[in-house]
Structures are given as C-alpha cells and as structure tokens.
C-alpha cells in the first residue's frame, strides 16, 4: 500500500483469516463510500501542501497562518478538480486539521438552514456556499456555557430604526470559544436574549457582520480577538477560538433568524407555525456526526497502538532469539482489543444513527413528533458515551506504546489533545447523561399508564419479564449467543432504571430527588446507552455480510465489546442479580479466548480502516512497521539539534560548570 | 494570602468547620516541613526570574534556553542564600519545571552512591555536588526499555589498555530517553552489557564522559542529540531527553561502577561481598518519591477544579438570582471529592513509605533482607496505583472545569502533559502490577508451609478467616467503622489472590498459566494496593491529630476514599461475596451523605495544600477566585492578537472572500 521498501508487518498480515478488502468496504459503509474516501485520502496524502508532520514546532502565529494556507489551498483544489459537495467534505476531513471552515460549513450554514426563514436562506446561503462571507457560531459566553438560557448578550429591538441593538452588558457576557471567530469570520450567528418592548423573549439567533469585507477590520462597536493557547502543541491551536464583545451594535431587523419566532415591524413577537421541536432535528444530526467522528478518532489510536504492539518486543527471549511481541501479552490484549472492538462498535452505531436521522427528518416533514424525544435522548446519550470512551481510549493507546507513545512523533499526544473537547462541546457529557436519565425516568413513570416505549427504549415495555428473568448461561460458549448477551444487557439497564425510579419516588420533591440521586441516575443512562451499542452491533452481525471470514471477525469483535463491558461494569450486573458470579467468571473465560481469536487478525483489522500514513500521522503506526529508523531520523529534525552546543551554553551551563555562580557563596 | 483585592471565595472559606492552619501542618508532614515549604514556595513565587506563565508560547529553543536560565538562576540563589540541601531541594521543587538538574540530583548521584565503591564515590560525588560535572542516567535504548536485561549496548574489557570499550552495535541499541542527555550532561551513568574475555556478564553501570569540559563538544566516538518534541506545549519539552550512540568509546576500567561486581586488572570478574539486593533499596527510595509526587500533582489538579467549581455557576437560577455553583451538583461531587480524598490518601501512604524506606535501610545495614521483597512489591504496586489514578484524575479535573479547562491558562493541560510519563518511567505500570502479582502468588503458595507473610501482606496470614467472614453491615453508618471497612478490603484482596492462585494451579506449566491469567492477576494486585492505601489512611486517622475539627475532616475523606473504591470496583466485592448487594447500596447511601459533609469544607481542604498561585499556575484555580477578568486579560496576550488583522489575511483569506481562487473553476 504505502510506498516501497520492506514491510516489517508482512508476517502479521499473512496471519489474517478474513478478506481485508471486503472489510474495508464494511468499515467505509458501502463500496461507493470506500472508493470515495480511498481516492480523496490519497489525493490529500500525496499533496505536499497538506503535510502536517511539522505542526508541533511551529509557533502559534506560524501554525495559524499555515492553517489558513491549507484552507485556501483546499478551496482552490476543490474548485480546480470540480469536486462535488460530498468530495469536498471528504477532502476537508482528510486534511485533518481544525480550521475556521469546520464552523463555517458545520455550524454557521446549518444554523441558517435550520433557523432561517426561506427568504433568509435565499439571501445568505449562496453567499456562504461561495464563501463570499465566512461565518461562525457564537453561542457560549465567558460566564455561560451549558445553560444556554442563561446567556447575557442582549438583542434589543429599536422600533424607531427597525433594528436590533446587540450588546454585551457585562464582562461575563463576552462571547468566548466560538471557533473561527477570533481572526477569520466576517459574520456570526450570535445567540442573544431577544428584548422587545422591555420584555425578555429568551435566547434567539441573529446574523451579525463582524468584520469589514474590504479590509477585514472589526466593524464599529465590535471587539474581537483570539482566546489564546489551548491543550497541547499543534492540535486545536490551529483554530482561532475567539472572544467577542458588542458595544451597542445595530443590525437590520431581518437579520434575526425568524423561522420559529418573528418580530414584526411594529415590534410584535409572533410564533410561526413551524414547531420549535425542529431544533432537535439539527441536534440529532450534529451529534450523529460526533459519534461517527468518535469511531474515526478511536480507530486511528487503535491502529497506531496495534501496529506498534506488533513491532515492539519486550522480555521473554529464549536462547538469543528475539523477544516477545508485546501484542502477545494478555494484559496488552485486554487493554487493546476492547478498544479495537469499540472502534467497530461506534462505527456501526454511528451508521445506524444516520438512518435514525433520516427517519426523524421524514417524520418532521410529516409533522410527526412522536419519536423525537426518544431519538433526541438516544443521540445525546450516544454522543456522551462514545466521546468519553474515545478520549480515554486514545490515552490508553498512548500508554500501550510505552515511553515512545509520549513522543509527539507517535501522533497520539496530538490526537488526544485535539479530540478531548468533544467530551465538552455540543453538550457536556455529564449534563447529557442527566438529560437521558430524565427521559428514562419519564419513560418508566409512564409504563403503568400503558404508554408503549419506542425505539431504543422499547425493551422497557418488557420490564416485568426483564425484572424477573434469569440468565441461562451454563458454560462459556453460552456467552456467544446473541439472545443471551442481549437479555443480560436489557435486564441490567431495565433493573437499574426501575431501581432509580423507585428511589426517586421516595422523595416528596422530585427535583430534589433527581438532584440527590443524579450520580446514580447517570450510571443508569450509561447502562442504557451501552445496551444500544451492543444491540446495534448484534443487529449488524446478524445481517448478510459478504467476504471470506468477514462476518466471523465482526462476531468476535461484537462479543469482545459486550463481554468487556460486562467485566468492567460487573457491579451493575451482579448487584441487580442479572447474572451470577459463576456466570461472570465464565464470561471472563470466554473473553480471554476471544482475545486469542482476534490476535492473528489484529493487524488486518486495523488495516481495514484503510488509513494512509499521512492521515495517521504517526511513526509508531506506520503501515510498514519501520519504526526505529524513522524515529531516529525524525529526532534530528528538532530545532534543538540545529547546533551541537545548545544556545544558552555560554550564559547558563558553562558558568555552573566553571563554578562562576558559586563564587558568590564565598 | 495572595496579594490584595477582593476574595471571591471568602464566603466559601467561612464555611469551613476545621482549623485550616493545622491542616496545613498535617499535609506538610510536620511544622518544620510546613514552615520550610511555605518559606521556599514564597521565595520562588516572588522572584520574577521564575515566572512560568509564558511557557506555552515559547518555541522549543526559547523554552529550553529559558529552562537553562532558570536552572542557573536557581543555582545562584542557592549559593547566595546559603541554602541547605533540604532547602535547595525544596527550591527546585517549587521552580516546577522539568530540567536536567532533576536527573543530575535524582538519578546520576544516587546511581553512583548506590553502585559505586567507596573510592568511586570519593572521586565523583564532590564533583557532582559542586556541579563541576553534570550527569544523567542512560539506561533505556531505542529498542529496549522495560526489559533492562535486554539492553544491547556493550562494554568490552580490553586487558591490553585496561579500558572498557563502550559501543552501540545496532540502531536499536542507541540510548534513547535519558533526561539531561540531549544537550547538557557532561557525564552519564551508562548501562551496558559487560563483556569480559568474550563472556557476557549482564548489564552494569559505567561512568562515561560525553562532552568536553572545555567547549561542551561531544567527545570523539560520541553522537548525541535531543529526541524531539514530547506531549503538549511547555510541559516536558523543557527537558532535553536525548539520543546517544557510541562508536568504540574507551573509558578507564575504574569507571565501571563496581560496588557489587568487580573487574580486576587481569580481567577477572569478582563478586564483592555487597549483596545484589542493595539495588532494591534504591528502587524503594525512588518509587517512594514518585508516590509523594503523585499526591502533589493530584492535589494541584483537585485544588484548581475545586476552586473553579465554586466560582462556576450553571443552571438553576430562581427568579433572576444567580445560578447554582457547579460544586453543588452531586455528579460534580461524585467525580471531584473522591479525587480530593485520593490526594490526601496518597499523601499519607507516601509519608508512610518514607518510614518503610528508613526501616529497609536500617535492615540492609544489618544484612537483614527478610522484608525486602515485600517492601519492593509494596512500593512497586503503590507507584503503579497512585500514578495511574493521578494521571486519570488530572484529566477528570480538567473535564470538571468544562470548556475553560481546555485552555492552557487553566494549568490543567500542562499539568497532565508533564505528569503522565510517571505511568511509564521507573517501571511501566502494568509491568509493575505483574511483579506485585508474582509476589502475591508466591506468598499465597507459601502459606501452607507456615511461612508468615510480613508487612503489607500480613493479612494473608489470616486467609482462612478472610475467606469465610461475612460483613456485619446492617445500616449505612456501619460503613463508618474502621474494622468493617478494613475487613471488606482485606477479604476482597485475599479472596481475589486465592482465586487466582487456584486458577493458576490448574495449569501444568505455571509460566503459561501466569501469562494466560495475567490480566486477572493484575486486578488482584490493584485490590491489594488499594487495601494498603485504605489501611494506611485508617491508621493515620486513628492517631492523635491536633487542631479543631481536623481529624473529623480526615475521617470523612478516609471513608470517601474507601467507599468510592468499593463502588467503583463493586464487581470484585460482590463476585467474591465479601458484601451483599444490599450492603453495597448502603455504602452508596453513606457515600452521598459524606459528599454533603465534605462540601462546605471543600475550599478549605484545598487551601490546606498551601499552594501559591505561582505553583498552581492556573487562572481557574486562583486563590481569590477572580477568574473571569483574569481569563479575559490573559487572552489578549496571545501572539495571534498582536495584530487585529491576522498575518495571512492577504494571501489566504481575502482571495477566498473575493472569489479569486474559484475563478479557476470557470
Ligand atoms: C474546543 C472548543 C470549541 C468550542 N467551540 C464553540 C463554538 O464554536 N461556538 C460556541 O458557541 N461554543 C463553543 N464551545 C463552547 C462549548 O460549547 C462549551 O464549553 C460547552 O457547552 C460546555 O459548557 P461550559 O464550558 O459552560 O461547561 P460548564 O457547564 O461550566 O461545565 C463545568 C462543570 O459543571 C458541570 N455541570 C454543568 N451543569 C450541570 C448540571 N446541570 N448538572 C450537573 N453538572 C453540571 C459539568 O458537568 C462540568 O463538570 C467550544 C468549546 C471548546 C472547548
Ligand atoms: C518522559 C520520560 C523520561 C524518561 N527518562 C529516562 C531517563 O532519564 N533514563 C532512562 O534510562 N530512561 C528514561 N525513560 C525511559 C523509560 O524508563 C521507559 O520508557 C520505561 O521504562 C518503559 O519502557 P518502554 O518504553 O520500553 O515500554 P515498553 O515496555 O515497550 O511498553 C510497551 C507496552 O508493552 C507492555 N509490556 C512490556 N513488557 C511487558 C510484559 N512483560 N508483560 C506485559 N506487558 C508488557 C507495557 O505494559 C506497555 O503497554 C524516560 C521515559 C519517558 C517517557
Ligand atoms: Ca466517511
């Protein structure tokens, strides 16, 4: 695949018991998606303008300018090659560097689409599509994040001039965090409290121009800048997350996004007939893409750690032979293979979420809101679960690489630094779990009334059975039966939900009860979300899957995914008596045996992600396994090695050695 | 404490139910230690030469030079102020920046002390103490880390010239990682295979001069440089971790460290009467300091997250009042307070380890090696446990700060990046757990022979009782009885050890069994180590502790520590039937109530660490809680804000906006 030279992992690739090319198609989603991503990934990888191995040594200014350069180059290539929307998106994905374009395409345009009237869309979208304006999404403030209803920025209607006056009344009302805001965006969708006739109508979106289209200077009344360095080197520092203050900035009335709520010329607030629930549709969409991204980020980390674990040898040499590959240690397997399985699991649940989103969209168009709360809770929960596991999983992959994982050249430090905010943005993961818990408690509370739970909560409709059932497992192989595994996970989630609902009912004030028990409630949400992932993985492997041995490998990964969770959350399963300690021990035996089965296929399973060395950005994860010479080569490129004797020797080292500092002691 | 101005956390400080000044003494270890650290911390904080808030924006070269400058300044101040050894060490600690001096004082000198003969010590130590030479510790190689016996560098005795020839036979034998090696050290203790008369005598240490004392140029045959960027910005990039290759470099015979093994003029290898076990003494010492450092790092993170959680408000405002402090959310408490308790727990177990080390040293002097294996296993296990929890805990603290935790200015990104290698160096944490497991299995295997387990394994002597006992807990308050908690932890650890030993005995080949079950064995080690921490915390709170309310707070933290582990590892406790699900649920109720008790004392409990704002290095963790104005101020200092219109606008942004790139499409 990559270049020429020796393939140090060839012996590993020979061990594979399945058709790797077919697995690539499964991972990509379809043959079309596979060919598309393969083509665009190579296009990016082969273009020197997109190199990214130098990010760590660039200063903040150089780094940022470099990102601007890449964005312009990408835009140019998209035009030159006449790429379709789909191809352009894929290209931005493989450029693999946070940039203002993410927010322009991913938040600014969708906000106008979702919240703008038809006229507003007709006016603004063509400008945005052609990038004649560049936009960002300015919601969060210095003092206000998760609680959007608490935002302080005001948009006061002035009937005299038919304008809104956008204002930052306090320091804490400064907009803070929006990506692309600090240095690039000409426009923003700004969220502010709508004040009409002295009355506060809550938070709404407004299109506000920030900078002159002539010379890029901030418009009068606008103070804007970058909020400074973030986690790590390279990573998210390519992005100009910004701060923004308004000193009574005036915008025309028609720049309030009025799809749902309108302000008339006379200053009347009129609710349109478009239902408010529409915004949940957008959230379902955005969170589905985050789940997809989780599978990409985790699979990158797993790919690096798996390949390096096959290259790295440590201990166990017999009679001068080579040492044991660390991937052969059961501790290494028990840390690595569940993450490999999770990457696949998240990929498939993400794929299923796209179907869910299509379904939601269709229903919304038909004014059917019945499944929306469930779909919303489901995506909120899966966003939380998959991003948390991915963030921790990347760091675990780094540890799996021992000392060398700590080198920037391993790719893992930057992957971690760039990934972790996914646990915070688009909903703090804990806040999201509590939302899921609210939905679950409501669902349980409504069971007696006969209301049938839908979609991913349908199992709660069988709660009587699930409270009483006993697992049939008698030997380790029973844990390879889909129905057995599914029932254990359903019983656990159902029993945890019911137990929490009962505990809540003991409080006279339900809100107090919810607050007091919130940590336990969040655990029930996790159990529910894990059940979703397990059940979607099982559904996937029950489909027809072509390719020699492909389905077999996916089954193995599916059971690893389920049984490792069972082991990790054993307390849940045992305290609710869903399984016995003996059955738990059999599950653990089965898990060990599954690790042995996946072992010979491990390299091929990460090859199936079809990542180029450019995209991986890791010397440890190189396709050809030629790690040591390349690490050695790379070291000498560090600026510190520009001179043999370091800058500072004469001022600071020599005086110590020559006792010129200690003389003052005498 | 810090400066003037308003104290935004004054209302929190008023809530404290204990004497903070007395708690500071407890945390420091003694009044002497408190006064010492307080004085030196202020000395460093008030010296502008030691500022560290600019690390993230310095280029690698500037950063490194800056560290050299600080090291020289520190050395100068130590001389000017005639600081004692103890004070000098404290000063380096509060300068709080990885530097070559860490390895010189922490590894090079101890290696010579531990492995050098009396004559060697007399020759080299005075030079090192005065820093007329600067040394590092060169063990790890590009291809060899954990398995020290696998090192490839050779030291071949040449009887003709009475020298050793140090050589790097392969690329993978290049020394790789040693701190201080890349650019600074004049000398190194190099570990190499001793070859005498063609026979390999295993790995030994050698003092090798690397650079000229005249002009700092590498000596002939030596290739040396920096290995490049590591995780994060600032952080460990202040250190010149290095690469080193030898091309037949000759050193005099008397530069082999010969305390244990000697090579005579004639080329005979003679074992001295100094027992090999001595090296374990050094390992006990080094790992004890790592446990101590874990408590410092974790307490820093907890201090930042706790203060900010009291400043940060989100949701729950009633009728225009201010929102709820996020520290009042039970989910926040259930994530934060166990880490607060862990910081104290690690502090006390670290304190106890210093006593253990004193005991070991005394016994070694008296040729009593009986407790050494137990002491060694104990420190290995505690190093693994405390560093793993601390690494994860820092990241959890960052997440607890929401979006702002992701800013470099929060201090948490750099704290994480600089801390995490502690999980890898001085023994990979998983490899260490497996060593502990070996010791535990041996201990269990020897029980039938009547051999009494000592020290931290003494409880295994009561294994019969522990296999049968049943927990007496009947209500939540029973979980506040030391004996009850201790018995549950002892029973869990004992039962896990015995179960693993039984599983092992089913294998005909014990090594195969150990390999196959290693993941489960590592879990038994964790259970054992957690028991040690719990028992030492309980011992601590059973002592006389002066100060109003101090003991009470420590008791609360002690039970939080124990019960949160019980909750997290519930599967262990239930599968071994140490407690019932009902008792587990009572423990959880108790835990929630303990969180409420610690809540009003939380700020005072982190104030008790007595950290200056300089040492904390975090705007979110500021003593005065004046977070928002300072974040705002800080943002404008980023180099990107040097100009309003960013560098790159004309080349890369304007052409996009003006459609000059898309023209090529037509
Ligand atoms: C890299 C990055 C990019 C971003 N990009 C944008 C952008 O483009 N546009 C934009 O508008 N914003 C952006 N943001 C901001 C982001 O959306 C917010 O940071 C996020 O919503 C979290 O809110 P917060 O920071 O206020 O966290 P907080 O809510 O303050 O969280 C702090 C702690 O409080 C806890 N907490 C809060 N509320 C509750 C509750 N009710 N119950 C229990 N616990 C609670 C949380 O769990 C957390 O532990 C970005 C942030 C980052 C880090
Ligand atoms: C910041 C930093 C500073 C350092 N400073 C120094 C220094 O000053 N001097 C010096 O000499 N060295 C130094 N080192 C090197 C350090 O000591 C090694 O990195 C460390 O010993 C781990 O070894 P490794 O890198 O070979 O990891 P590996 O052993 O290769 O670990 C890779 C993986 O294999 C697993 N593994 C390895 N062996 C086994 C086994 N037997 N059973 C099960 N699993 C196994 C590990 O758990 C890990 O997951 C430093 C390293 C770092 C990161
Ligand atoms: Ca894709």
Automatic annotation (TrEMBL), chains A, B:
Residues 482-658 form the Acyl-CoA oxidase C-terminal domain. Residues 280-441 form the Acyl-CoA oxidase C-alpha1 domain. Keywords: FAD, Fatty acid metabolism, Flavoprotein, Lipid metabolism, Oxidoreductase, Peroxisome. The keyword Oxidoreductase applies. It is found in: Peroxisome. Pfam families: ACOX, ACOX_C_alpha1, Acyl-CoA_dh_M, Acyl-CoA_ox_N. Signal peptide: none annotated. SUPFAM superfamilies: Acyl-CoA dehydrogenase C-terminal domain-like, Acyl-CoA dehydrogenase NM domain-like. The active site is at 426 (proton acceptor). One of its GO terms (molecular function) is fatty acid binding. Gene3D superfamilies: Acyl-CoA dehydrogenase/oxidase, N-terminal domain, Butyryl-CoA Dehydrogenase, subunit A, domain 2, Butyryl-CoA Dehydrogenase, subunit A, domain 3. Belongs to the acyl-CoA oxidase family. This is Acyl-coenzyme A oxidase. It comes from Turnera subulata.
